[in-house]
Amino acid sequence: MGKVNIWLKRSFIVVASLLAIIGALMLAGTLFSHGQYHADEKIEEMIVGINAMYAMSITILVLPIIGLYGVCKEKRWVLIVFTVGIILCSIFVLYVAVHVLIVRPVIIELMSNFYLSMQPMNSSSEVDVKILTETQIELECCGVQQGYVEWGYNISESCLCKGAVEDCVAAPRNSSLFQPAEDTPVMIYKQPCLPKLISHLNVAINTMMGVSMGLISLWVLSCALSIAILCQLREKKDTLVVAYSREAKSGNYAVLAEPAELT
User: Whole-prediction pTM value?
Assistant: First the structure.
């Protein structure tokens, strides 16, 4: 078994440690999100995504630990398991990322059709009104596509402005929120929700793509280092060649030092 270059070994340890830290942070974030959704009683809606995040974060955490053990102990079979696992994970994440890019227009269209189907507001179901109300509070917007005018007279209280003043307008006089006795007008959000939803979705997808590409880059680098280490471990060590000489006969040696005198 050959000897591994010390700098190659240290480079692998640095990259694998970085991957392990990323996996630990992802696992901590998943645990926190699990607790938040459980407290908000939304765990049933998000259980599939949470389980997927658990599987991904644990895999990202465990594989570098296997690789670190293999390179520290110089175990070839452990490094082979690490390399195969990294290659499979890279292919899977790359497939998911490409698939998300392909279906992004379809996701945006489905989301747009879902929110547009809520119009007109006066004939929307209670479920649709509840969903839109939660969206308006979270994104600080009002209405779906044309703003507060879609609510007609009964503008939802979730449209009341609680953010920056420049993002709000005064409630119209012919609305339920208008209060003529007040000195200051009631402010409501002027931006509709659908453009904000699409923008947030694009930001989330782009962020996911960036994280995926960064993760794949680290995986590819660690895989290349692991293969290089495996190649060095496969090389045989140079052995000293012992040459036989006919001149080496019994008694044909010189005394290197005089024996110590007996006392």
Answer: 0.71
